[in-house]
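Query structure, 120 tokens:
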């Protein structure tokens, strides 16, 4: 069960569910847009983990800003999606780890995005 009750009216998905939904979705910008909106939404639901969600939201948002109004090849879109799926898996691992390990994994994702991802 992944839905978490935030108040009497609103149910939100967990990061694992959002990451799974992204992984199962098509590689178009709409999937990246849903991911960044979900990641930024999770920041308000789980402020203690906001940095983890922020790095995913920024990466997904960067893709949308760069390619939303452009045609990209399916291969390019699949490669970008694979990068984010990998980031999501590492962040999910970080969230399930002790704080020192989680912060190390967050640092790895952040540095990888900053220094090795040049497409978005």
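Result returned for the query:
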């Amino acid at each position: 069960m992944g839905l978490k009750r935030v108040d009497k009216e609103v149910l939100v998905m967990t990061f694992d569910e959002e990451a799974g939904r992204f992984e199962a979705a098509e590689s178009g910008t709409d999937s990246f847009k849903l991911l960044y909106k979900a990641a930024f939404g999770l920041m308000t639901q789980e402020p203690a983990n906001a940095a983890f969600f922020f790095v995913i939201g920024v990466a997904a948002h960067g893709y949308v800003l760069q390619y939303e109004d452009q045609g990209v090849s399916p291969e390019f879109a699949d490669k970008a999606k694979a990068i984010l799926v990998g980031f999501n898996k590492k962040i999910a691992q970080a969230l399930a780890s002790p704080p020192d390990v989680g912060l190390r994994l967050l640092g790895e994702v952040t540095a990888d995005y900053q220094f090795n991802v040049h497409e978005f």
